[in-house]
Design goal:
The complex is a heterodimer of chains A (273) and B (306).
Chain A lengths: L12 H22 L16 H8 L3 H35 L6 H13 L2 H14 L6 H26 L3 H8 L4 H30 L2 H6 L7 H9 L5 H35 L1
Helix pairs in contact in A: 1-11, 2-3, 2-11, 3-6, 3-8, 3-10, 4-6, 6-8, 7-8, 8-11
Chain B lengths: L19 H26 L2 E3 L5 E5 L2 H7 E2 L9 E2 L1 H33 L3 H16 L2 H12 L4 H8 L13 H26 L2 H9 L4 H12 L1 H16 L3 H7 L6 H9 L6 H29 L2
Helix pairs in contact in B: 2-13, 3-7, 3-10, 4-7, 5-7, 5-11, 7-10, 7-11, 8-9, 10-13, 12-13
The chains are: A mainly alpha (273), B mainly alpha (306).
């Protein structure tokens, strides 16, 4: 189309969009590149090497990072599972139960963990655990993570549920299914992409969290972000760049997975229509 | 944002009517017991007496709020004077969050517009590329930025070897670095809601304006911007609110001189200050600021769609 006539075209918007991508990716790519640097200093480039990856897995700090990684993944899996379960029920209540008293309040409540600044959540949770005398540890981290994962699991699940026509379940009821059976055999399979998507996002959110974890973790327990933060406080070391690259790859893989699942879900929806 | 989020629109009828509350109950219990109640307790703590090295003594006191606004001398017995220390920290945080929001808008709006005007597949790939960095660990992103703009970092090295500058530009531990960090952290938050708005924008309006001899930029100003305003406001709030209470960017990029609210609060619990009531009070003040912003937003929303 001729640009002069196309009202969607604005001169300069393409370069800005490219600049936006560049700004978002440049730091990450440079850290990735430098994680392969064969030098003990992070400043000068001395050729390609995998020594810092070897250092992460077998070096002096390997034990610390391995246990931190294990903690992170165990907590993320547990928190995402519980949060997804709660969010699925909540989405069903919000979208499949018609109008009821307290619905809009419930909506605000589910999104509350996103609205409250993270540092405030961290402070409130720390004070709460201290007030009820719960010793900081795995349990406190897990509880805090479940709470802030709920809205992130909820969003893709609710988005998906909104796209599914209620007549499928209605048909199931007409064929003498119980309401539970309609949920289990009709709604849930249709919901699968949304639920998986929500689970993955909750998982990443939990894996990423630093501030809240830092407040509610006990003295001896570290997750990957808190361990990395502790190291970075003493200056950026090359092994940190290797760990960052590994964690970055995990995040990107999970997001891509979630995106592909979401797309296949959309395709399914289009096929139905 | 609320009006665009899934689940916020009018409830469709469903087969579980009557079960609404029971189904949402687990979420209520979880968030109510582990977030609402803690915030309430935090409010109570902000009116208690501090115990040295963390914790509180159960005695009513307004010392925390008093300390925030006033100075009473080293021993607390002088007449009170307005103390600007903490107010300045809050003002600086608001200022930096504002600048970051404006920067995000300047880059984010054209990007969102550009993406929304792509055809199907290329659009979803662009959208995906914008989303990915958001899901990458914020700590790692901040560290990457710190690595990049250090005095001996790649940016300075390239500029020097390119002959653009002679001495490294000192960027780390400045206000500029903090703003850049906030901008970099929350840029995707600006793009996505604006994109959602532009996507629903009816381009026939632009065509009509052009037929009436409006220039492209006049159309943008008087037709497009008002139409996509909800998305812009949502984007600004999604950037401004987390920027205000940010901890990582000011802490890692700003250093000790560029204290922001987040670091101030953190220090009361994790650092050397160890003043829990004061930390709770500062958190309450931050939370009230955020609530004001959200209420303003909610009212703007109702005015848009009464």
């Amino acid at each position: 189309m001729r640009k002069q006539l196309d009202q969607r075209y604005f001169p300069g918007f393409l370069p800005i969009a490219c600049l936006c991508l560049f700004l978002l990716y440049a730091p990450l790519i440079i850290v990735m590149v430098y994680s392969f640097n064969d030098s003990t200093s992070i400043t000068s480039w001395q050729g390609f090497s995998l020594r810092w990856y070897k250092d992460v897995f077998f070096g002096v700090e390997a034990a610390k990072f391995k246990s931190a990684a294990a903690n992170s993944f165990v907590i993320a899996i547990a928190a995402a599972t519980v949060a997804t379960f709660i969010a699925t029920l909540a989405a069903t209540g919000m979208l499949r139960a018609g109008a009821f008293k307290g619905r809009s309040l419930s909506f605000a409540l589910i999104n509350l963990p996103i609205m409250v600044p993270e540092i405030v959540t961290a402070v409130a949770t720390l004070i709460f655990f201290s007030a009820i005398g719960l010793t900081p540890g795995y349990l406190t981290i897990l509880i805090a993570h479940i709470v802030f994962c709920i809205p992130f699991a909820y969003l893709p699940i609710a988005a998906r549920m909104q796209g599914i026509d209620g007549s499928f379940e209605q048909a199931a009821l007409d064929l003498y299914a119980t309401r539970f059976e309609a949920f289990r055999y009709v709604l849930l399979p249709l919901m699968a992409p949304g639920i998986l998507s929500g689970y993955l996002l909750a998982f990443i959110i939990s894996l990423d969290d630093f501030i809240i974890t830092n407040f509610v973790k006990g003295a001896g327990i570290e997750t990957l972000p808190t361990a990395i933060f502790g190291s970075v406080k003493r200056g950026i070391q090359p092994n940190i760049m290797a760990i960052s690259t590994l964690l970055l790859v995990v995040s990107v893989v999970l997001v891509t997975l979630s995106w592909l699942v979401g797309r296949s879900g959309q395709r399914l929806e289009n096929d139905q229509q | 944002m609320a009006a665009q989020l899934p689940g916020s629109s009018r409830p469709a009828g469903g087969i579980y009517s009557g079960l609404g509350m029971p189904l949402i109950m687990p979420a209520w219990l979880c968030i109510g017991f582990f977030l609402l109640l803690p915030v309430a307790i935090m409010f109570v703590y902000s009116f208690l007496t501090k115990e040295f090295r963390g914790g509180v003594i159960w005695e009513f006191s307004t010392a925390a709020y008093d300390q925030f606004f006033f100075y009473r001398g080293l021993f607390g017995d002088e007449p009170r004077q307005l103390d600007w220390t903490y107010i300045t920290i809050f003002a600086r945080s608001i200022w930096q969050a504002l600048v970051a929001t404006i920067l995000c808008f300047i880059i984010g709006f054209p990007t969102a517009w550009f993406i929304a005007t792509r055809a199907g597949n290329s659009r979803s790939i662009w959208l995906f590329l914008i989303t990915v960095p958001y899901w990458v660990n914020l700590l790692i992103r901040t560290i990457s930025l710190k690595f990049l703009i250090r005095d001996q970092g790649p940016v300075n090295n390239w500029l020097i070897s390119g002959g653009v500058i002679g001495e490294p530009i000192h960027m780390i531990n400045t206000n500029f670095a903090v703003m850049l960090g906030l901008f970099y952290s929350y840029l995707p938050f600006m793009v996505l809601p604006i994109y959602a708005s532009v996507e629903r924008y009816n381009f026939a309006l632009s065509e009509a304006a052009a037929d009436l001899y409006s220039s492209r930029w006049t159309t943008l100003r008087y037709v497009v911007l008002p139409a996509v305003k909800p998305g812009i406001i949502a984007g600004c709030i999604l950037v401004f609110v987390p920027s205000l209470g940010a901890f990582l960017a000011p802490d890692l990029l700003g250093g000790a001189k560029n204290f922001m609210i987040g670091s101030l609060i953190e220090e009361q619990f994790k650092g050397n200050a160890g003043n829990w009531p004061f930390g709770a009070a500062a958190s309450m003040i931050l939370l009230s600021l955020v609530l004001c912003v959200l209420i303003f937003y909610a009212r703007a929303q109702t005015r848009e769609n009464p």
